[in-house]
């Protein structure tokens, strides 16, 4: 799956019953961010550059199920018709916009 933005492209592998490494790489023009598997339960990530002596490691502990926790909290807020106090409003809006665009097949190209 590729998600195209004005100034960026996101690529994801999605499959039912298939396995992959599960790490995440966010590529930029000056370097990239590497999040080791499983990225949704990360406790650290690295910002890597062409010259490895400039690399930096950041530690960030996510609670419970990590990023999946945010998606679960978002879903429960919708189901319960209540304000979600655990996830920032802008994150909730971005998630809902992405889902809405996909459902409406906005900028979606299906390969069969």
User: Into which percent range does the helicity of residues fall?
Assistant: 25-40%
The proportion of strand residues reads 15-25%
H/E order of the elements? EEEEEEHH
Q: What is the quaternary state of this protein? A: single chain
Q: Quick one: biggest sheet?
A: 4 strands, antiparallel
How far is the N terminus from the C terminus? 12 Å
Number of E-state strands: 6
Classification by helices and strands: alpha+beta
So what's the overall shape? globular
For the largest sheet, list the strands in their spatial order. 3-4-5-6
Radius of gyration: 16 Å
pLDDT averaged over residues: 79
Contiguous uncertain segments of 5+ residues: none
Q: How many DSSP H or I helices?
A: 2
Structural domain count? 2
Annotation keywords:
about 110 residues, alpha+beta, four-stranded antiparallel β-sheet, 6 strands, about 20% strand
Structure description:
Helices cover 26% and strands 22% of the residues. By secondary structure, the protein is α+β, with helices and mostly antiparallel strands. Strands 3-4-5-6 form a 4-stranded antiparallel β-sheet, with no helix packed on it. A two-stranded antiparallel sheet has the order 1-2. The mean pLDDT is 79.
């Amino acid at each position: 799956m590729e998600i195209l933005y004005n100034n960026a492209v996101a690529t994801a592998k999605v499959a039912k019953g298939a396995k992959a490494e599960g790490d995440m790489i966010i590529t930029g023009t000056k370097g990239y961010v590497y999040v080791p598997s499983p990225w949704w339960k990360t406790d650290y990530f690295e910002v890597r550059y062409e010259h490895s002596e400039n690399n930096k490691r950041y530690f960030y502990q996510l609670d419970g199920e990590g990023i999946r926790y945010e998606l679960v909290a978002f879903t429960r807020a919708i189901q319960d018709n209540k304000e979600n106090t655990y996830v920032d409003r802008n994150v909730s809006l971005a998630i809902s916009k992405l889902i809405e665009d996909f459902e409406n097949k906005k900028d979606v190209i299906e390969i069969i």
